[in-house]
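Researcher: Good morning. I'm working through a list of sequences from a screen, and I'd like to move beyond sequence-only analysis. For each chain I'm collecting a predicted structure so we can compare shapes side by side. This is the next one on the list. No need for commentary yet; just the structure.
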Amino acid sequence: MTMEPALLEKKGHIALITLNRPEARNSFSPEMLVRLAGHWEEVRDDANIRVAIVTGAGDKAFCSGADLGQLIPLINGARKPQNEWDQKILADPNILAKGLLRTFDVTKPVIAAINGFAVAGGMELAQGTDMRIAADTAKLGVQEVKWAIFPGGGSTVRLPRQIPYARAMELLLTGDLISAQEAYDLGFLNRVVPQNQVLDAAFELAEKIAANGPIAVQAIRKSARECLGRPESEAMGMESRFAAPVFKTEDAREGPKAFMEKRRPNYKGR
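Model: Good morning. Structure tokens for this chain:
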């Protein structure tokens, strides 16, 4: 594998992003976050990409969060910038939020292929995805509180919405890790599979989604995310606004036509 700390590969309509610092448990360095933010932008802007998968290199960690020797000292002023990546992080604080999918929406479904430890910022990145498949050996949690750090990648907002409140608070305030099976039982994961099957399972799911009408997929995702937590009457109106343009697309004509002709639809994203 190349030495770049965040890689982007395109396989048909699927983008694969790999956090590539296995020697550091794929922790976030300044360079990794800058490159990761750029990859998310590319996924959003490439019309040929319909689904993205994010995973970690190696078999130990998905991501162990911020590099406590590089990133945190840079952010809190204990370390001066030493290279262009450090300078980019300090010049644009949004890079961190974008890399972690905290405030940046790629507009397309993202699947986390959690091949090992997903801790702190790694767990927060997973929270920013739409679906998650984990190795049966994986451990997950937000441990920032143990180091007197705030889990500012979105955990205090997202985790209580994605799992039951009391369990979310326990994880946030103790910093304890849970097993993949526990995370599955809480509804945080879609599947738990053997470690060597994580990426295959993620691609299987991605391929199913990529075979569907891309405009419909993006509109459904947008509606589900933006209507979450809204009063039902308001959410129904929003759903109607998201749905209406979909029915006017070429793909919306192709889908029923292909069904009647008993053939596979050829969706073009328009």
